[in-house]
Fold each of these.
Amino acid sequence: MSVINSLFSAFLMYSKIPMPKTEWKEENRRYALCFFPLVGAVCGGLIILWYYICSKLNIGNILFAAGCTAIPAVVTGGIHLDGFCDVCDAKSSWGSREKMLEIMSDSHIGAFAAIKLCLYLIIQTALFTEIFDKKLLIVFGAGMVLSRALSGLAAVTFRSAKSSGALQNFVKPAHKRITIVSEIFMIILSCGIMIVSGSWSGIGAVVGGFAAFAYYRIFSYRRFSGITGDLAGWFLQICEFVILLCTVLSHKLVEVL
């Protein structure tokens, strides 16, 4: 029963998808991170469904791209974008580690975060307008699973910058060995789907995802001495942006060559 409750806990925390309410106790969060990548699978599936709807209704590229950008934010409730904004504000302060952690704990959004969020969403939407092939959408959809699997793996293997917080609510009760095995399985599965579906575009996207993961580790350790929930959200957004960018650029490069 704790496995089912862990599934519900993962979706209740990381999505706005209606789920049965579960008691907030450690037993019910033991395997929650194992199910975290499934939220990405739902987002990817909805984006592909949106592609079919747009194809049937002859909807233009701009509206299609706007929908692709909006779907993950609607499904997740913007929880990862919130972390992205908090980290952007902290980075822009150029303060000490303690000062940046304090800024990240503030619920208000600053000017720097607002500017970078707008740029992020505009460029992401523009990149989606360059995707005309269902196979490329499958690459990105699987990339949303990869980003969450990498995030879950980092949660239980990277050093934590704080001893408390939203991330620790899932890390501390986690069965680490099972979580690591589960995340590695999801990483291998998602990478396989990306490469099979997109060929060189898929390879480029996989390389981009792992490059973002390496940068996440270097940046979080250098600036914060570890990771936090906000940094995890920031990484997920950066990872998916890089995966999308590499998918588009790899496809364009193959076309030229």
Amino acid sequence: MGNLRAGLLGIGSMGRHHARVLREIDGVDLVAIADPGGDKFSVARDLEVLPDVESLIAAGIDMAMVAVPTAFHEDAALKLAAAGVHTMVEKPISATSEEGERMVKAFADAGLVGAVGHVERYNPALQEMRRRIEAGELGEVYQIATRRQGPFPARIADVGVIKDLGAHDFDLTAWVAQSEYASISAQTAHRSGREFEDMVVATGTLANGVMVNHTINWLSPMKERLTIVTGERGAFVADTSTGDLTFFANGVIQTEWEAVTAFRGVSEGNITRFAFAKREPLRVEHENFRDAVLGKSADIVTMEQGLATLRVCELAIESAKSGQTVTL
């Protein structure tokens, strides 16, 4: 069997990175690129820049990466599904859950692999954290807190910070804890004069009882990408901007300070920053999508999972508008 023929729709700020990785991974040939806006980052090389998804399909592709703005995901995905093309779309899966439902159904009915590009799942720090939690190193998980904040990205124009950045944290939190959201309560702000929210604080619970908290915004000059998981044996801190994972262990030294011994909490213990292999998340994501298309064992974010994350985003927006906690 020859290499899989891959097509890429969208070669903007994110699409250019997909082009690079699709050219690098084994078993895949990037044979067609389409973008109605042209090739402003000069990534096409010897490939013609096609005008639309129809021309991409006509190039005879086995799999496609869709990296156009969210508003165009459904149209492109449904056309690719009808043409029998395995497809991964960038997150969020779609602009609305109704669109996402149609996408899920189209790929399921066609027996095709449909995936969503939640690339943070493949961050080495989070991969290592989840592995260690599964191995029982943290014991029972109590709480997951994320902080994702930084300056406003001018390239984002069709969604707010919840569907853009929040989608990352909602997805990775459910994935790390291996449990779906049960409730969500959110507050938002509009400070930059745009249609969509640019700041959110959200709290909630997962179905397994884990408490969650998210601080997310486009209004900070300080870029921060942290996931903190606290459990009965200590806390893991994953910095996904650097790929580092640190473990703060509960202390085991008995204190002789009588006033403190009455408090049945934990004390500071050893701090360990783990050393492990760190591979580029986008490359790992594409390798897993390739393997799924080939029918091999693979860890992809399915369209069903992407849709579940989008629903959490929508309910967070609903909660902020109503001022009420929303139960899923």
Amino acid sequence: MVIVMKNISTKCEVMILTGAGQIGMAIARRMGYGKKIVMGDKNLENAKAIAEIMNNAGFDVEPVEMDLSSRESILQLIDKALSYGEIKMLVNAAGVSPSQAPIEAILKVDLYGTAVLLEEVGKVIAEGGVGVTISSQSGHRMKQLTPEEDEQLAITPTEELLNLEILQPENIKDTLHAYQIHFSGNYCDAACH
């Protein structure tokens, strides 16, 4: 008797999770069961620790080193995710806070990095796919941006974003202000693109 095995595809639905922290893990635990979860974090040891917790609970998580401030690193994460199947979910819980980083790093990671992530995942996410970027009410605690500033944050090409006048060091008061202003840009990136 001869048994012929057909090539069965092992592709599955994939969730990208950026940021190996408690918030991202909570969302992934709620939404990611039955999916391959590719978790990117700048600190691979943190990603491995969260992946171990989740894998021991029955999830399928692969930790990957990923720097949200780097388009190349984001593209590598996306390629890894696509190697498992269709990207159906994006959970962006990565970022730095005013107490963790200087102004330039906050803008590069939280504003630029999130814009790149949304742009690049938006190119490949499966039909019907969804995404969420974790935010804070902090952006609502600063003076409202002008309509022109909102528009600039919404329509400026990603690679030119950090060149905007509003984001120049002389126009950013401190790390808290940089943190607050990035939320306005993230909202515009998610809502307007």
